[in-house]
Amino acid sequence: MKEDESGVTDVKWEAVEQKQDESGGKIKFRKKNRNTMFVKISKGIVFILVAAFSGGISSAYITGKEYSKLKNENSNKSVVQGNNIFQNYAGNYEGNSQNSIAKVAQAASQSVVEISDTNTNGADSSSNTGSGIIFRSDGYIVTNYHLIQGADKHFIWLSNVTKPLLAKVIGFDVFTDLAVLKVDRKNLQAVVFGDASKVQLGDYVVAIGSQFGDTTHGIISSPNKKPQDPIMGSGGNFNVVQTDAAINSGNNGGALCDMNGEVIGINNLKITEAYNEDGTGTAVSINDAKVVINSIMKNGHVSRPFLGIQSQDYIAENSKNSSGVLVKDIILGTEASKSGIKPKDIIVQFDSVKVVSTEGIQEILEKHKVGDSVPTKILRNGKEIKINIVLSEAPVMKKP
């Protein structure tokens, strides 16, 4: 072996072994070690499994921690939030009924007050007591008219005070048996009115009174029903919600709530006792109550159109005569007395609609306002006569 001047070493070449049957040298290939490859693959699989297992534990820990935090936050929040904003709370009655009912009751009860005509917190058994609902944070309360009727003073007991507040009557409506009161107090907890038109048969509800013990629960047995034999005035064309939840003296005038904690009706024991259909409780629909409340807040009373007559249903004795509404008397001072209508006339059409009952006339009146001129067809001595009757304002009681 020699090294030239460039530093390249010259090696000695030797002949490569060659067999007679082969044309050139034989190249020997070295086989890869299979045991080494298996070890490497096994290590990779183990690494992947360890990583997946560790990741799973970490994810479970973080998820559990966040869920626990969220659960605690939600459990500490009331259904009622602010003065008149409810959180979205979907109470799951199935499998968790008592918890859901308790949440609704505890939250809404903050806005349900006791109403009494004495300042002894119900100690006097002869006192007239019931419940009311705070619907505005600045001290406005709605209740049943019959709970304040005839009393000289009205006292409000809030859930978090030991002394009653003297209330002033803003107005009332005999027709729907509702009244609005006002106390001199701000930042009160107010309810949220729901939508009674969305209530369905079988929905769960909670009837809430001024005391937690006066809270009952049940399902809706009739979502929208008109009283067939109205107690307050004539007509009865406002809607009531019927439920198998007990309406008693404790929650009379209180809130009928859905499972979101929203008020869908105002509990009314007087109407309940009048119908008492298989023990069902009755509440005035909040949709009708809102109209009454707004009118009282604006005018001090509810302005309703009034035909200005005393009437009764008339059923024809034979097919030659028409059934309708018999005019018994004309109320003096109303626009009807100027229209030419007389006692013993039979109203057969009102606002171009055939009528056969006083209830039918009342339903048409609800679509009009005071001062409207309504085309009317009457029968007088068997002869048809067409007149126009201008609607008056229904008389309003000035004192409760």
Strand order of the largest sheet: 5-6-7-10-9-8
| Residue share in helix | 10-25%
End-to-end CA span = 132 Å
According to DSSP, the number of beta strands is: 24
Please indicate the percent range of residues in DSSP E strands (runs of 2 or more): 25-35%
Order of helices and strands: EEHEEHEEEHEEEEEEEEHEHEEEEEHEEE
What sort of overall outline do the alpha carbons produce when their principal axes are compared? globular
The major sheet is characterized as: 6 strands, antiparallel, barrel
Structural class: alpha+beta
The quaternary state of the protein chains shown equals single chain
Radius of gyration: 41 Å
Q: Kindly report the average pLDDT value.
A: 78
Q: Indicate the low-confidence ranges by residue numbers.
A: 11-32, 66-96, 229-235
Tally of individual helices: 6
Describe this structure in words.
The chain has six helices and 24 strands. The chain has 400 residues and is of the alpha+beta class. It has a six-stranded antiparallel barrel. Strands 11-12-13-16-15-14 form a six-stranded antiparallel β-barrel. A hairpin with a 4-residue loop joins strand 14 (255-258) and strand 15. The longest helix has 42 residues, at 34-75. It is globular and about 105 Å long. The protein starts with a strand and ends in a 7-residue tail after the last strand.
